[in-house]
Amino acid sequence: MSPAARFVPLARLLHWLMALLLLAQLLVGVAMMASLTLRPPLIALHRPLGLALLVLVLLRLWVRRCHPPPALPADLPRWQAAAARASHLLLYALMLALPLLGWALTSAAGNVVLLPGAVQLPAIAPRDPLLYAWLRDAHGLLAWVLLASVLGHLAAALHHAWVRRDGVFEAMAGGRPLPPPGAD
Question: Which residues form the Cytochrome b561 bacterial/Ni-hydrogenase domain (predicted)?
Answer without folding.
Answer: 8-175
